[in-house]
Amino acid sequence: MQDYVQELMAQVKAKNPAEPEFHQAVQEVVESLALVLDRHPEYRSAKIIERIIEPERVIMFRVPWMDDKGEVQINRGFRIEMNSALGPYKGGLRFHPSVNLGILKFLAFEQVFKNSLTTLPMGGGKGGSDFDPKGKSDNEVMRFCQNFMSELQRHIGPNTDVPAGDIGVGAREIGFMFGMYKKLRNEFTGVLTGKGLNWGGSLIRPEATGYGSVYFAQEMLGSRGESLEGKVCLVSGSGNVAQYTTEKLLELGAKVVTLSDSAGYIYDEEGIDRDKLAFVMDLKNVRRGRIKEYVEKYPNAVYTPTDPTADYNPLWNHKADCAFPSATQNEINGKDAQNLVTNGVYVVSEGANMPTTLDGVNIFLENRILYGPGKAANAGGVAVSGLEMSQNSMRLSWSREEVDQRLHNIMKNIHSNCVQTAERFGVPGNYVAGANIAGFLKVADAMIDQGLV
Ligand code: NDP
């Protein structure tokens, strides 16, 4: 089986050159699936893995727009429609200067398994642009979003492909894109999730990824008879996922001591309490400022700027019990993973997508810590997007308590599915294998049922 994995990876690299993040995501999944192929030769003969790594459709397009100075700007737009075996394509849009085809393919690939784990009827997709919303005026963001949607609208629809937010795409951007879709198509439908509450959005959607990642950590700790009460937690990022991760951790009695953005991180030994979190939410969501300003307001905290020449991230080098990486891919490398373990961290719940390199993942697995990979731990976001789709179809809205209860149950079910699947395939306690295999089996069986399409 090792030969098969090596051969497949050689083909993936040859066919998809210059896409290291995609190679990394495929390798992690394919290594887990070796355990399945041994028992199920039918998946191998139907070439399910070879099919699942090939997007069903890739859309790339030009997005011209005019900035406030009257200068023409050109960005590139993408939508990867990866797999529709379980339902319409579903997955976020990312606006960040680092966005390229390989990054979106890795995200779309992960999304297929994640959406399968939620048990909701959603296929996998991802999209976005190399547009950078940072430093742009609201009008510039609106013009960009409108131009982006003027092309994307041809390819999406409530029964075809339902995008949502991701890095750089929050309520403001979803609003501008929804408005343009509605105007061009002359229809008011649930074509995007993460919508405003007054116009089809779901309660708890903004909170869902962060809350879900904390619920997943709670379940992992529960499997050892422990809780989050009193635990010291490292959180990275300061965007949507980081904010609501912090909020839920505070509610459950944990202490959060770090937050970050791409320029640096803050360490607050006294803990980030509710007032301090409210300051961060206003700073990031309203004033669109930098996390550095935290130490101007709370001088007992320490700010450390990002050092691009360093081979490790000092945020992960503090004494703590739990870590919630909630910024971006590959933010924990092998050295960071070792630092975390050495500093006593034994719970890692990934709010971000693929925040840990393959080296780092192996260190967590060797040390047998409670490690919840992103496709399981951060599935709460897309799960509540799925619930938003259901509410839109029924043309009604559930209460905050009802959505939160459903989210909590979904996270509990994902956790037990991972645990049981890992046990069934002889790797107990390995949430990576559990998530990859459980996510894969449903998609693979649906693909076989639906024939060669
Ligand atoms: P936001 O844009 O709200 O926040 C992103 C945060 O991460 C910001 O603090 C940002 O800092 C930081 N960040 C982004 N890129 C980098 C980078 N290259 N290096 C260091 N820091 C960086 O995004 P979200 O909170 O929505 O997303 C965070 C992660 O969670 C992503 O991996 C996303 O894919 C994942 N995720 C999000 C879901 C959602 O529902 N929103 C669902 C599932 C996963 P700065 O402002 O300086 O760029």
Give an account of the 3D structure.
By secondary structure, the protein is α/β, with parallel strands linked by helices. It folds into two domains: 2-188, Leucine Dehydrogenase, chain A, domain 1 (Rossmann fold, 3-Layer(aba) Sandwich), CATH 3.40.50.10860; 208-372, NAD(P)-binding Rossmann-like Domain (Rossmann fold, 3-Layer(aba) Sandwich). Helices cover 49% and strands 15% of the residues. It is built from 17 helices and twelve strands. It has helices at 2-15, 20-39, 41-45, 48-52, 101-117, 138-152, 171-185, 205-222, 240-251, 274-286, 293-297, 334-342, 358-366, 374-377, 380-394, 400-424, 431-449, and strands at 57-66, 72-83, 89-95, 124-129, 161-164, 232-235, 255-261, 264-267, 302-305, 322-324, 347-349, 370-372. It has a seven-stranded mixed beta sheet with strand order 9-8-7-6-10-11-12, with helices on both faces. It has a five-stranded mixed beta sheet with strand order 1-2-4-3-5, sandwiched between helices. Helix 5 (101-117) crosses helix 17 (431-449), helix 8 packs across helix 9 and helix 15 packs across helix 16. It is globular and about 60 Å long. NADPH dihydro-nicotinamide-adenine-dinucleotide phosphate binds at residues 98, 165-168, 209, 237-241, 261-263, 326-328, 351-353, 378, 381.
Could you give the topology of this structure?
Blueprint: H1 2-15, H2 20-39, H3 41-45, H4 48-52, E1 57-66, E2 72-83, E3 89-95, H5 101-117, E4 124-129, H6 138-152, E5 161-164, H7 171-185, H8 205-222, E6 232-235, H9 240-251, E7 255-261, E8 264-267, H10 274-286, H11 293-297, E9 302-305, E10 322-324, H12 334-342, E11 347-349, H13 358-366, E12 370-372, H14 374-377, H15 380-394, H16 400-424, H17 431-449
Parallel strand pairs: 3-4, 3-5, 6-7, 6-10, 10-11, 11-12
Antiparallel strand pairs: 1-2, 2-4, 7-8, 8-9
Bound molecules: NADPH dihydro-nicotinamide-adenine-dinucleotide phosphate.
NADPH dihydro-nicotinamide-adenine-dinucleotide phosphate (NDP) binds at residues 98, 165-168, 209, 237-241, 261-263, 326-328, 351-353, 378, 381.
